[in-house]
Amino acid sequence: MTYDVESLRDVYSAQVATAYDAENFYISLHWKDPIPMGNSHDPRYGANKGWAGDAVQLRVKTDKISHLTAWYYAGKQEPTIQISHGKSLTEPFGGGETQLYRTQGWKLQQGAEMAFLKDADGQGYVQEIKLPWNVIATRAFKAGEQINIGFELLWGEADWPVHRYADNLQPGTNSREFFWDAHAAWGSIFLEPKGNLKLPTPSWLQISADEIPTGPVEIKYSIPQAARVTLAIDDAKTGRRIRTLLAAASREKGAHVEKWDGLDDEGKSVEPGQYTYKAIYHDGIRANWVMSFASPGNPTWTTSDGRGAFYGDHTAPQAVATSGEYVGLATPMGEAGQHLIGTDLNGQRLWGLANRVAFDGGRISLATNGKILWVANEGKESIIYRVDIATGKYTPWDIKAIDASGSEYGLLELKIADPPKQDSLVHEVATTPVSADIPKANLSGLALRDGTLAVVLTRDNKVKLLNSETGKITREFVVAEPRAVVFDAQKNPIVLSKGRLLRLTADGATPFSETNCADGFGLATDTSGNVFLSVRGSDQNVKVFSPQGKLLREIGKRGGRPDIGTYDATGMRNPAGIAVDSKNHLWVTEETTNPKRTSIWDAQSGKLIKELVGTTGYAAAGSINPFDPTMGFSDNTVYRINLATGESHPTYSLSQSPVLNPANPQDGADLFPPATHNITSKIIKRGDLTYIYTTGSARGANELHVTLWDGKNFRSVAHLGQVSGRDLENEWAKYKHPFFAGQSGKIYVWIDANSDGRVQREELNFADVQFEGRNINLRSNYWGQLPDDQGTITYMVNGGRGGDAVKDTLLQFSFKSVNKAGAPVYDIAHPRIFKISEPLIKPDEGMILGGKDGRIYLNQNPVLSVDSSGKIIGTYPSRHVSVHGSHTARAARPGYLIGPSSILGTADMGGDIGEVFYLNGNLGENYLFTQDGMYIQTLFKDTRGYFDIPQQAVKGMSFDATTAGGESFGGNFIKAANGKTYVTLGGTDARVIEVSGLNGIKRLNGTFDYTPAQYTQAQTLLQQKVAQTSAPRDYGVVRAANPANIDGKADEWPELLDDNSKILEIQDSPQQRFGRVSLRYDDNNLYLGYRVFANHGTMINAGQDPRLLFKNGDVVDLMIGPDREKPEGASAGDTRILMTLMANKPVAVLNQKVAPGAPANEKFDFSSPWRTIPFGRVAVVPQVTMATSPINGGYFVEAAIPWSVLNLAPRAGLKLKGDVGVLFADNGGTQTIARQYWSNKATGLVNDVPGEADLTPNLWGTLTLQ
Predict the structure, then answer these.
(1) pLDDT: is 1126 or 237 the higher one?
(2) Angle 1127-1129-1135 (CA atoms, 0-180°, nearest 5)?
């Protein structure tokens, strides 16, 4: 029993058998468990928590109902069973409790017995149970009868299961979530008259049809054990890879015959001749969580209950508010990380919310009374909205508004001022010190007391007082450049204005304190009326004033922690929003990213109590020093990590960005600041010197930076790239510096000559490099390049400045020597230029990484392995490279690469296997390969399918069935000095995962002939395949005999349950189905019935903003518009109707990209950091009727959409362009993880709001009204 045989059979599964006789019922379970028999709950004191560790729960229905929880208490090596009895056969609980304790050995009370035996390899155990019939029934059951038992399998060692699975369900049921109550779903156990039953081979042990190669050529081999086999065919003469025939396919022990159809990986016929086969086999590569760093989350990943992970990624912490038991924390904007969170007083996250408008957020401020959290966030709009601080649910103001349909609703967003001139302030925060400059934000402070909300408007030179419920303005003060506000005990605002603290009363503004704080930022008060002020500039701490304005003390080391250098936890850096909690602890958000930090201090003594360090930047993750695995890197921060205990803390901060000195244009000192991790990194050693190589991406892709760790400091020692002569912004802004004047287009290298880590003009060298008589450009893929183990850097080349890509040539700069400053010396004027035997693709989204012995790995299509001589030693098909490639990918399957972007590293396993290299993927999977391009295995799960989300972090827990997440760009793969292999990944954390099993890989090889006769047979097979063309995407919509009754019952839609009916199929294949849809119409409505195949049996969507429901969980979708010849972009009439549940109530949202005459308040821009797609109309349409209910294997949705909503007039023969689809939620219904459609197959995108919102009628099918 397991929900994923491929990933979990050897990790989280159980082989279950039952038997019976006249006196007893017997159950045997052979568990697979990486930490076996680890239940820590003593039956004498924690019997009701026995399910929270390794245990089986048996849901038994005989002539009564019993719930048995059976486990092995590790503390005393003791078997125990707890039984909860049902009140009746329809009331599963309420009949009393029984506890069966050990009497002797494996014997228990009431004649029961239970024994355990750990597997020899320590990766599982056997559990055998004997239950007298009188324990679970009032009589003995006999042959020919049946009972019902549902099995609930649980794994865990702490106080909550790390994995759970329920099975043996009745046909047609899927109630796994609340299995203990769903007694009608518990499956049947048939009591047979004889034993030794011959059962059919389960489907998961049978080789699927898609996995069986066909063809006239037979390749024979034998393996000594059941294993996963990869088999490739090479040309015997040239060694060129022809075909990967098997990719980690499951094969049983013994002899096998694989068939080949004579085609290569591109589907082209190859000539008869001699060929070799190479094979590798292994019994599974495993991923186990070790620890996480660079995040204060517990756990550090997002969980379905909202408690995992922490706050935003793109920006640093800026706001905090607290009252009672809760704390609100915020960064201005987040993408993978939710920017606004609620925590308890210990910093345990309770919930999180995304920005109200995606990728939009500037200055943020918070205020709370312990029940409601007021949020002021100035991006494209200056608004204040409200949230329940305990739950994170939006709480409207006591202001009534009218929507487009005329319905009344509570206003959530209160506009407080005119919007700022710039589109968004998101890029103005968290990256540079504010110092004494006036912030560009207008809405820059909030305070609350006794129902009055004070609002700071800096540019307007005002402080407004509002009723905190109605938003009504009760008073305004004119104040010069206010920045922050609090209330004193008399409810008078105290305001930071131009570096001075002022008290605002009915008589006007008076000085609160004589202390001048030009670098002041945030204000807070405690219960004694003391006023706290965060100060930046040279002080970098918090000042504490008495209620009368006297400076009492300072909290935090004056001068703060260094921006660059050894980390000092006792100092702050760029303190921002502050608050004092009910324990008299001062919370300080610090606006830095090296690292991000919220620090907690004793407000009286000034002692540091706790620091909440992290999160990482977007998809940044981290890396580990393979030569010293106690050293970790993430986001310009060095950490000391303990892989045994899971503890970590920062030890060193690096500069956050290049610094140009406008006062001295000749000062290029900080053009190339040190770096230790940027997406990924590569660390090499020369003698005792450790060099950290990082590369850029996008504009910075052709750059490569080298940082030296000298045992005390991190110092830049080299930087290589090519000068851009155009568009000198962002990464290329440094080329405006006078040092680069006149050098446009030249290759350059900076090598530190005097050990200061700073750039002097004489340390920069420029060169033109020629190839075949003309200057060439360095050519990089989007994710850059990193060197081999000796420091040799490999580039592709362009022929001449702006010339075409040279398709078969590589260029290398070698690490020649080490100079007296410890810097690597590169001679850019004399590179090695050589040709390879495989075409290189045009600049794309891949990457180049060097390995051991001069090998080069190129992530492109195909993936290439190149030896030091330039010979191709391995290729592998990769048809969906990186982000944009993944958008066209079909469902995941072994060996199918989906969106590989970066090569995260290599690990030398020695022996026959040699080096292993590691590719990430854009939709949650990662991929392992041998040095000669043999696919080893996929790690982790596709985000578009089902995956496990552990609710707690337990060292050693399996991560095989988890996902690496969408757009998980960053990370690092190493073999550490301790002999273990690790990958570091994460969404907003650096998640360290041990990868095991690579040492168990074995190789096979052989030679065979492909004859002319076999070639002829192969051609015949090929012609048969070509003849199998796909049917056109056309569908006839039948006229309904009667109007549909929209009640959520599927009885009016029998065709949805009939697999032979001709309706719309949303699937990759009959084995990979996502949904079935039927359409009907009458004169008034278009009717739709959806059958959705989902692991959860109900539609779930946690969204609170109707415009963005397609990002927050399950949705069924209709796209429809007038038929046009060769439609390109959307035009008037093209409509999308998204239907789901919001707050458990049906809702339909209309999206029209082009909507002439639509109300202005229905216009909406769907935005990401790199683009915006405006829509003319996005609105809830209450005229649409929709209902949903569970159905076998998923859920059912039916809807009636009035033709008037679609602005279409139905008639027989009318042709329309259209598509139907299903959007799938994660387990918690908090985010959309997959999009699947009938016609449009380019729907792999799940990490880009505008792309997911866009309408593409050119990819829709044709709907014809019958």
Answers:
(1) 237
(2) 90
Quick one: average pLDDT of 425-450?
Answer: 61
Quick one: pLDDT at residue 699? 84
The number of angstroms, rounded, from the C-alpha of 530 to the middle of its chain's C-alpha atoms is 43
Q: Please give the average per-residue pLDDT across 101-110, as a whole number.
A: 96
Cα distances (angstroms) measured from residue 1090 to each of 543, 572, 944, 1071, 1140: 61, 56, 19, 18, 12
Question: CATH number for the domain including 782?
Answer: 2.130.10
Query: Any idea what the Cα angle at residue 570 is, between residues 564 and 576, rounded to 5°?
Result: 75
Question: What does the pLDDT read at residue 425?
Answer: 39
Q: Is 440 domain-assigned? A: yes
pLDDT for 568: 97
| 1148 occurs within a structural domain | yes
Average pLDDT over residues 89-116: 95
Return the half-sphere exposure (C-beta side, CA atoms, 13 A cut-off) of residue 666. Answer: 2
The tokens for 699 are 């504009």
Minimal CA–CA distance to 482: which of 443, 448, 539, 536? 443
Question: For position 114, which CATH number holds?
Answer: 2.60.40.1190
Query: Where do runs of H (alpha helix) occur along 663-760?
Result: none
Query: Is residue 1109 located within the same domain as residue 1018?
Result: no
Nearest to 426 by CA among 618, 680, 297, 619: 618
User: Residue 438 pLDDT more than 50?
Assistant: no
Place of tokens 């010979």: 871
| Same structural domain, 728 and 868 | yes
Which residues, in sequence order, are bridge partners of residue 601? 586, 608
Token output for 222: 């034998």
DSSP 781-809: -TT-EE--TT--EEEEEESSTT-PEEEEE
List the one residue out of 220, 209, 281, 277 whose CA is nearest residue 244: 277
CA-CA distance, 390 to 392, in Å (whole number)? 6
Query: Which one is predicted more confidently, 808 or 25?
Result: 25
Rg of the chain, C-alpha, whole Å: 33
pLDDT in tens, 289-341: 999 999 999 999 998 889 999 999 999 999 999 999 999 999 999 988 999 99
Cβ distance 1218 to 1228 under 8 Å?
no
pLDDT band for 808, please (50, 70, 90 cuts). Answer: confident
**Residue whose structure tokens are 């006078």:** 738
Residue 98 shares a structural domain with residue 174: yes
Q: Are residues 409 and 467 in the same domain?
A: yes
How far apart are alpha carbons 1063 and 1044 in whole angstroms? Answer: 17
Closest CA to 1139 of 1174, 1173, 1097, 1106: 1106
CA dist 698 and 78 (Å) reads 59
- pLDDT tens profile 345-381: 999 999 999 888 777 778 999 999 999 999 999 888 8
Sign of CA dihedral 103, 105, 111, 114: positive
pLDDT of residue 210: 47
DSSP assignment of 305-352: TS-SS-S-SSS---EEEEETTEEEEE-S--SSS-SEEEE-TT--EEEE
Q: What is the pLDDT of residues 1070-1111, one digit of tens each?
A: 767 899 999 999 999 999 999 999 877 889 998 999 999 999
* Residue 259's CATH number: 2.60.40.4070
pLDDT band of residue 430 (cuts 50, 70, 90) is very low
> 118, exposed or middle or buried, with CB in 10 Å at 0-12, 13-18, 19+?
middle
Q: Region 394-416: what's the mean pLDDT?
A: 88
Burial string for 487-521 (b: 16+ CB within 10 Å, else e) reads: bbeeebbbbbbebbbbbbeeeebeebbebebebbb
**pLDDT score at 418:** 80
Enter the tokens of residue 1245.
């995108």
User: Does 691 score more than 70 pLDDT?
Assistant: yes
* Structural domain that includes position 137: 5-190
